[in-house]
Design goal:
The complex is a heterodimer. By secondary structure, chain A is mainly alpha-helical. Chain A is built from eleven helices and no strands.
């Protein structure tokens, strides 16, 4: 519980922090080039004298935003296709399962690069690429869950007790899907952020002036050999920490939504 | 009168018949038995009589009308495994009142305690879940109950307690019960008549 509270607090702080920060740290100041971390510049400064802490916070917030949109799109695709596969007969099922297999069989990063390149790169490219490639696992789970519960004894019995199909869907089916769905969304989130960062790092994503985590890390690579370790350490560490936070949140949620553990 | 006339069933045209031309009658206020060794199609017959499966030929009728599929069914089936016929994500309060709001008397008669209402099914034992499933099935529209090996998972003491409560209930409510079991002792204690499926 403590960990969950702490995670939420940190995420809120990150968001508020990036809102409150003005652009002052992002301006170039050649008198402050390549400073190692100190009290005034927590993560040091880069070769143009920009404050790395400000850039990291802003970048992380942008990356989280991209991750959120991409993860939300992915889950909607997953839910639609998963439900369609389970409810609309054999042909639809074969079609969706086939599509999932093809998606999984293709190397992930290659697919990401191809899609983001095809739609013109940039922030839009990253979001579309991540959203279009991350729905497969969740779609499989949704399909399996619906197939399983549709024939469950308590669902058939509900009909015999005089309940209407819509009521059964709302009270039996959806609550059963909800935990899988929500935990899937939360756990997709860090995936999406990492891939957004990865794409940007490889140069297919956001433009170099945007302070996204991937851009920061790819720039830092070029300066590591000159001894500027803080350029990569700060943003890299923050990325790991925040991705882990989502992992904690997702697991805590699973724990809460499972009736076997929720009353402990 | 619940009546199954010349019932025949098989799961598909390429599979063997499970039963053919089987007839059975159950009057209100009566407890009758259906005996058969394992794997003879007792559960399938129970599902056909309760309207879960449609017979390939023959018909199931209550008081000369076919079973309804729109409203609550007058024939209710009690399954062998109560934990499978209960949504594991619901609390007991929602489970017992899925079909109708049960009165305090009926809850008390079957020993369903109020302090279970806030619990999840996995926090109750098999006997307790069986009683919950019985109460859930005894809605105002229910005229016939088909108990498919309902107590075979329970120990003898709990078994006796459940059946005593149900037999009491039959006297006051004119419910008709078909007891499906492979346990001849149980059937001969409970039922006046027995049908045999073989």
């Amino acid at each position: 519980m403590l960990m969950v509270g702490l995670s939420c607090l940190l995420l809120a702080t990150l968001y508020l922090g990036s809102l409150l920060m003005d652009g002052s740290g992002l301006e170039t100041d050649f008198s402050l080039r390549n400073r190692p971390p100190d009290a005034k510049h927590l993560f040091g400064t880069d070769w143009l004298g920009r404050d790395m802490f400000t850039r990291t916070i802003k970048g992380l917030c942008l990356s989280l935003g991209i991750g959120m949109v991409a993860a939300a799109c992915s889950t909607v695709i997953a839910l639609t296709l998963g439900l369609a596969a389970a409810m609309f007969g054999r042909k639809m099922d074969a079609l969706v399962t086939g599509l999932i297999d093809i998606m999984i069989a293709t190397p992930h990063l290659v697919l990401l690069i191809l899609i983001s390149f095809a739609v013109g790169g940039g922030g839009k490219g990253v979001i579309i690429a991540v959203a279009a490639t991350h729905w497969t696992r969740l779609a499989r789970i949704v399909r399996a869950e619906v197939l399983q519960i549709r024939n469950a004894e308590f669902v058939e019995l509900s009909k015999k007790l005089g309940r209407k199909p819509a009521w059964i869907c709302l009270h039996h089916l959806l609550p059963h899907l909800f935990p899988q769905f929500f935990v899937g969304l939360i756990l997709l989130f860090p995936h999406a952020i990492m891939h957004a960062a990865g794409l940007t790092f490889l140069g297919f994503g956001l433009s170099p002036h945007t302070p996204a985590i991937g851009v920061l890390l790819s720039e830092a690579m070029r300066h590591l050999s000159t001894g500027c370790w803080w350029l990569a350490a700060g943003p890299g560490l923050m990325l790991v920490v925040f991705v882990k936070l989502f992992d904690i949140l997702g697991n805590a949620l699973r724990y809460l939504l499972d009736p076997k553990t929720s009353q402990e | 009168m619940l009546e199954g006339r010349n019932l025949s069933f098989r799961y598909s045209a390429s599979l063997p018949w499970i039963f053919q031309s089987f007839s059975i009658q159950l009057a209100q206020g009566e407890i009758i038995g259906l005996y058969g060794p394992s794997g003879q199609g007792k559960s399938t017959l129970a599902k056909v009589l309760a309207g879960y499966l449609t017979p390939v030929s023959g018909a199931v009728q209550t008081d000369d009308t076919p079973l309804t599929t729109q409203k609550a069914c007058p024939v209710q089936l009690l399954f062998q495994h109560p934990e499978r016929s209960i949504n594991p994500r619901w609390k007991v309060k929602k489970i017992v009142s899925e079909g109708y709001p049960p009165s305090p008397e009926i809850l008390q008669k079957f020993g369903v305690r109020r302090n279970w209402f806030d619990r999840y099914p996995h926090e109750l034992s098999g006997g307790e879940l069986t009683r919950i499933a019985i109460v859930r099935a005894l809605g105002p529209q229910t005229k016939y109950l088909i108990a498919d090996e309902m107590t075979s998972m329970l120990d003898t003491v709990t078994q006796a307690r459940v059946w005593r409560a149900l037999a009491d209930f039959v006297k006051s409510s004119r419910l008709g019960i078909l007891v499906v079991s492979h346990d001849r002792m149980l059937l001969s204690r409970l039922c006046r008549r027995q049908f045999i499926l073989s």
